[in-house]
Amino acid sequence: MVTPRFRRTATSALAVALASAAAVGGTSAAGPFSDADATTASPTADSPPLAHGSKGHGGKNAAERSYRDLLDHSDKAKILTAAHRGQWRDAPENSLPAIDAAFDDGAEIVELDVRLTADGVPVLMHDETVDRTTNGTGKVSSFTLAEIRELRLKEHLGGAQTALTDERVPTLAEAMEAAADRGLVNLDKGWPAREEIWDVLVDTGTVRNGLFKSNAPVAEVQAFRDAHPGALYLHMIIDDNLASFDEFGDHQPVGYEVVFGTEQDAVARAPFLARVAGESRVWINSMWNGLADHLTDEASLIDPSRGWERLVTTFRASMIQTDDVVAIERWLRTGEGDTVPRGSVRVQAEDYAPGGEGVAYHDVDAGNRGGLDMRPGDDVDISDADGNVRVSWMRGGEWLTYEVEVPRTGTYELSARVSSPYTPAGAYTVAFDGGPESERVAVLSTTSHNKQELQASGVAQHLTKGTHSVRVSLPDDAYQNWNLDYLQLDRVTH
Fold first, then answer.
1. Per the record, which residues fall in region Disordered (predicted)?
2. Of 281, 321, 324, 287, which Cα lies nearest the Cα of 110?
3. What is the DSSP letter of 237?
4. Which end of the chain has the least Cβ crowding within 10 Å, N or C?
5. Dihedral sign for Cα atoms in the order 287, 289, 292, 297
């Protein structure tokens, strides 16, 4: 297998810490930022009770544990995971199943987006319009609740070519009831509707589940907090409103969402973050470049020290919002990113065989449209998507050849980590060692160019121990518009 040029599989500092703990009889089953390290704080005297009522909420359920963890600002506070728009990989974003799936996968917080209907009902919707995520068109504010309920949500992140589901747009009340005994809810985009949201929290008994958020003037925020005792509040802070921290004085929010374009931003500097962490939780986003420089989910999968680990150790993050809940929870337990499964073989898309055009690859357009100059002189389109290095602009008639080193004789199944917002996204065939091509494998939409998914091909091949070639070809009579991150061969054991 060609050695990856810009990817590292070196053991992270967190994994070293885990190994050291195991060697001296530590808690090897728990990662360095797991529950085992958490200390809990008591709720404040004027805090309202957690969810209660006919469902029997209250007591020491998951939501109460998350609430108590939220109040813990110590150096050993548990790192809390926030699922961006819920677990949209399993269900439509901002849907009730996405909320359930996020908590099932280990998140303590679901980030949801709140907007008002024409008749003043808070519902879940990220955009001002319903166009991207439903089969409707128009502004959320132009629909009554009854009208918006007639719409159907699209799969995952939505988009013009995304399939419809049977899911409907939830009300905030339904969302809070779903989260009531499971965890916390970050109420994004909801500050203009804060009074209506507060009424929902009170009516559903979920005041201690809801996290208000804004970058509004401190005086405005304080007036709301004074009028609504027990309201949990997270303040968004960048260089432009850095002074907000001092303006809150002795009445600090429970957390700050810190956003920095580069590590040189004042808000990202160690002295300031130390002050914030001494008073509040530090919330940092890892979904894409620009939210925390380039410390992203995708960079973390390659090497956690290039993302999540640095957010915690350098930038004091104690809450991380992610698009990859399963992976970050695995990292919190083990210190590992996207490791190659035992016995499997993985080759990165950009590490195709040497030899150039007509030997190692065929590309239908001249030059590297991706702009990432990792194979100088080659025409393969290599790009960077929020830390993910991949081959992009996949088009009909193109092909790539890879050399893989198989560690053990056996039958191997091929998978490809891909992304595309289109339906259909494309198709490919596979040929091993110059043999016949496989049947066509359909590339399924991930509903985003920049959100990758490992998809099984159904192609299996008996391979002997040693070096083999794998050619991936794109039929020129099929629509093709997708991106390839890596190929993986998993040994069949059954």
1. 35-63
2. 321
3. E
4. C
5. positive
Report the range of poorest mean pLDDT among 240-249, 252-261, 485-494.
485-494
Cβ count within 10 A of residue 285: 24
Quick: pLDDT tens for 269-294.
Answer: 999 999 999 999 999 999 999 999 99
Q: What is the largest CA-CA distance in the chain?
A: 73
pTM: 0.89
Instruction: Reply yes or no on whether 228 is catalytic.
Output: no
On whether the CB atoms of residues 29 and 334 are closer than 8 A, the answer is no
Residue 221 CB neighbour total at 10 angstroms: 23
Radius of gyration of the chain (CA): 24
211 pLDDT exceeds 70? yes
413, amino acid identity: E
- Among 3.40.50.300, 3.40.1670.10, 2.60.290.11, 3.20.20.190, what is the CATH number of 13-334? 3.20.20.190
CA distance 262 to 255: 21
Q: Is 84 a catalytic residue?
A: yes
Give 61: exposed, middle or buried? Use CB within 10 Å, 0-12, 13-18, 19+: middle
Please give the Cα distance from 84 to 453 (Å, whole number): 17
What's the rounded Cα separation, in Å, for the pair 475 and 93? Answer: 33
State the catalytic residue, choosing from 52, 57, 73, 84: 84
Please tell me whether residue 226 adopts helix, strand or coil conformation: helix
Least confident span in 28-32, 363-367, 394-398, 479-483:
28-32
The pLDDT-based confidence of 494 (bands split at 50, 70, 90) is low
Query: Which one is catalytic: 57, 126, 235, 294?
Result: 126
CA distances from 344 to 299, 340, 369, 411, 463 (A): 21, 6, 31, 11, 12
Give me the helix-helix angle, 172-179 and 96-104, nearest 10°.
20
DSSP-derived 3-state class of residue 198:
helix
Separation of alpha carbons 20 and 32, rounded Å: 11
Q: What residue ranges do the domains of the chain occupy? A: 13-334, 345-491
Residues 57 and 233: their CA atoms lie apart, in Å, by 22
The whole-angstrom separation of Cα 310 and Cα 181 is 32
Distance, in Å, from the CA atom of 443 to the CA atom of 451, rounded to the nearest integer, reads 14
Tell me the C-alpha distance between 172 and 168, whole Å.
13
Nearest to 321 by CA among 290, 297, 294, 293: 297
Helices (H), ranges, 113-193: 145-148, 172-179
- Residue 295 clears pLDDT 90, i.e. is over it: yes
Residues 345-491, CATH architecture: Sandwich (2.60)
In this prediction, residue 118 carries a pLDDT of 98
For the stretch 465-480, pLDDT in tens is 999 999 999 999 999 9
